[in-house]
Specification:
The complex is a heterodimer of chains A (446) and B (226). Helices cover 59% and strands 5% of the residues of chain A. By secondary structure, chain A is mostly helical. In chain A, the strands form 2 sheets. Chain A has a 4-stranded mixed β-sheet. Chain A has a two-stranded antiparallel ribbon with strand order 1-2. The termini of chain A are far apart. Chain B is an all-alpha fold and 226 residues long. Chain B has one domain. In chain B, α3 runs antiparallel to α5 and α6 crosses α7. Chain B starts with 9 loop residues before the first helix and ends in a 10-residue tail after the last helix. The chains are: A mainly alpha (446), B mainly alpha (226). Chains A and B meet through α2, α4, α5 and α9 of A and α3 and α7 of B. Chain B: Keywords: Membrane, Transmembrane, Transmembrane helix. Chain A: Keywords: Membrane, Transmembrane, Transmembrane helix.
Chain lengths: 446, 226
């Protein structure tokens, strides 16, 4: 890059739309990223995935900014004047595109760095290959900027910039609704729990698709011989084919290192969290043990608790193990939450584990939760165990008609030894799945 | 005996001239502000929104009326952005020097665009008007018109779309899910009709934005527009 080009680029950066784009993309990025920070705090992989989720906002902003920048010559009526200078017009267009791209990528990086503040100090797992996902995100912004540049340069009109931005938003929205086309958009529809990763070929294919698209659009907007755009377009299409043609199973892979349990077993009651969530272990240990202690004296009662994400299939969990959705108790900054914003507490998470034994082993809905369960007594027994675990006679959100007593209230009103005897038989029934056993349990609570 | 009105009848000539005197400048003004094209665009947005809403509700795994949230937020935004270009003239300073009651005309612009967009979108949302349908489309039209009207005096008509566009893009993703009525003061584009706070905020935006625009008009551009 010669001195004149550097000066022109610097002027474009300072006087063009770039400063506004940095502010808008950083601001929008931080606002959307931190809105759901409990989904990624403390975990590198989910942070990258959520940075890709918010692409649905950042890409349209980059498209609109680039379209506005590309329409500048027409607005200022300087295109003829610029045409009289010896500098080739493609350089002028390419510099404008590069300026907006730099601004957009800087906006993404700043938003991501803000997220790093909630990950780096506490993360217990370094993640796997997430940096490639972030690089693809940067390429996506380059492609978005190229799209805006092409539209702004080729289509006249006062409202080209917002229409291009809103159009990009709609296209991304439609793309994320489709199982296959979503892989052609840079936006993910959600973040994983940190135990999944994308193999290298997905990142490489997406990078080639987006880079090819960006190059084709810049050539279309700037080159004298527009047919040259066909070459990178061909690369883009070739890279897109495996992305669209592969099933979901071929994309996300299980990261067994992230799932590896990290345990503490002082006092005989074992608490295990997945390595990716292990930063919560110190804080979780005591409340989880208190819950385990409640099952002391229950025949077959829980003696250990494991993080749901640390096991492939909850049905394969060892005997007497409570499988907990620990992530439900993660606060916005990655700390252990006494009560989440959705009202989850360790009691409710444990209660779900107690009820899930029936749902998982006996499948009362046979996979269709909208259907009538085959044996309603299974559901009622699971519900009684659920509310026994919460331990409140009038839990929030439960309506019991005046003069009536819910089965779990009957259970809680009995002496402790009888309660534990009932729960022991509930756990046995949850293993045999005998409808008669559940009928008998519910008969006792009438 | 019946009277025959000839083409040279002075009363008819006067009426015709009076009609031409009133309508022709209004038509010229509308054309100068790009209103005919905006009207076509609004009709296209309404039809596209109709199709999208139908597709979203009837696709596999649809959650019902909730699926229409993107349409309820996006269609009024797009329609208002299309109409926003008409909030300012080609040369605001020159226009203001003419002997025209600009405040009345600005008020007419705002009420006209609100009515046009509102009617077009309400028509497509009449199946389930209170569940992400006509009521919400009308409310969001008012809200986005208010935002655009408040932005025009600050940023000019060419950039008046920026705050609404950025706001809608961020709110759509940043709003707590499920959508809480307690957050209605800032998530009003995504709220159901029952959220009174959303209606209050929108009415305040509309009244405030309209008042600001009627008083100040769009900020003149630094350079002549295309």
């Amino acid at each position: 890059m010669d001195r004149t080009t550097r000066r022109a680029f610097r002027t474009d950066l300072v006087r063009g739309v770039a400063p506004v784009a940095i502010l808008a993309i950083t601001g929008a990025g931080i606002a959307t990223l931190f809105n759901d920070s409990e989904r990624w705090a403390g975990r590198w992989g989910p942070l990258m995935e959520y940075a890709r989720v918010i692409m649905i906002v950042l890409v349209p902003l980059a498209v609109a900014a680039a379209a506005w920048q590309a329409g500048r010559d027409r607005r200022r009526r300087t295109d003829e004047l610029l045409g009289t200078t010896p500098r080739p017009s493609w350089q002028h267009v390419a510099l404008g595109w590069a300026g907006v791209t730099l601004a957009a990528v800087l906006g993404l990086v700043l938003a991501w760095l803000a997220g790093v503040a909630l990950v780096a100090p506490i993360a217990t797992y370094s993640g796997r290959g997430w940096w490639w996902g972030l690089a693809v995100g940067a390429l996506a912004l380059a492609a978005a900027s190229a799209l805006g540049t092409a539209v702004g340069r080729l289509v006249p009109g006062r409202l080209v910039a917002p229409l291009a931005g809103i159009g990009a938003y709609v296209l991304l929205g439609i793309g994320t609704y489709s199982d296959r086309l979503t892989w052609l958009t840079p936006s993910f529809s959600g973040a994983t729990d940190g135990t999944r990763y994308l193999p290298g070929w997905v990142h490489v294919s997406q990078a080639l698709w987006l880079a090819g698209l960006a190059a084709a659009l810049v050539l279309l907007a700037a080159a004298r011989h527009r047919w040259l755009a066909a070459i990178p377009a061909l690369v883009a299409v070739t890279a897109a084919v495996p992305l669209v043609a592969t099933d979901d199973e071929g994309r996300w892979r299980v990261d067994h290192t992230a799932m590896a349990p990290v345990c503490t077993d002082e006092g005989g009651l074992e608490v295990c969290l997945a390595r990716v969530n292990a930063f919560l272990l110190d804080a979780a240990e005591e409340p989880v043990r208190e819950q385990l202690a409640r099952w002391d004296g229950v025949d077959g009662g829980f003696v250990r608790a494991v993080d749901r994400v640390s096991i492939d299939d909850a049905a394969l969990a060892p005997e007497r193990t409570a499988v907990l959705e620990v992530a439900h108790l993660m606060s916005w900054n990655g700390e252990w939450s006494e009560e989440s914003e959705h009202g989850e507490r360790i009691e409710t998470v444990f209660a779900q584990a107690a009820a899930d034994l029936v749902y998982r082993n006996c499948r009362p809905y046979a996979g269709d939760v909208t259907a009538e369960p085959a044996h309603t007594s299974m559901i009622w027994a699971a519900e009684a165990a659920h509310y026994w675990t919460i331990g409140e006679t009038t839990p929030l959100g439960v309506v019991v008609e005046d003069g009536e007593t819910a089965p779990f209230q009957v259970l809680l009103s009995r002496p402790e030894a009888e309660q534990k005897d009932w729960l022991g038989r509930y756990l046995a029934a949850a293993h045999t799945c005998e409808p008669a056993a559940f009928d008998a349990l519910m008969e006792e609570l009438r | 005996m019946t009277s025959v009105v000839t083409p040279l009848d002075p009363r008819r000539d006067q009426r015709a001239r009076s009609f031409a005197h009133r309508v022709a400048p209004a038509w010229l003004h509308a054309r100068a502000r790009g209103i005919p094209l905006a009207v076509l665009g609004i009709v296209a947005v309404a039809l596209a929104a109709w199709w999208c809403a139908d597709w979203l509700v009837h696709r596999e795994w649809s959650t019902g009326a909730d699926s229409r949230v993107p349409v309820v937020a996006g269609a009024p935004l797009l329609a208002v952005v299309l109409a926003s270009a008409g909030l300012g003239g080609q040369d605001e300073e020159l226009e203001r020097s003419t002997a025209v009651r600009w405040r009345v005309r600005r008020l007419g612009h705002i009420l006209g665009m609100t009515l046009l967009i509102g009617c077009a979108l309400v028509l497509i949302g009449l199946w389930e008007p209170r569940e992400y349908g006509a009521f919400e489309l009308a409310r969001n039209t008012l809200g986005f018109v208010g935002l655009v009207a408040a932005s025009a005096p600050v940023l000019g008509s060419r950039l008046a779309w920026v705050p609404s566009f950025a706001y809608a893009a961020v709110v759509y993703l940043a709003a707590p899910k499920p959508i809480l009525t307690e957050a209605a003061w800032w998530t009003w584009p995504l709220q159901q009709w029952g959220a009174d706070l959303a209606v209050l905020v929108v009415v305040a935006l509309f009244v405030g934005g309209t008042a600001l625009y009627v008083m100040k008009g769009a900020r003149p551009a630094r350079d002549a527009d295309e």
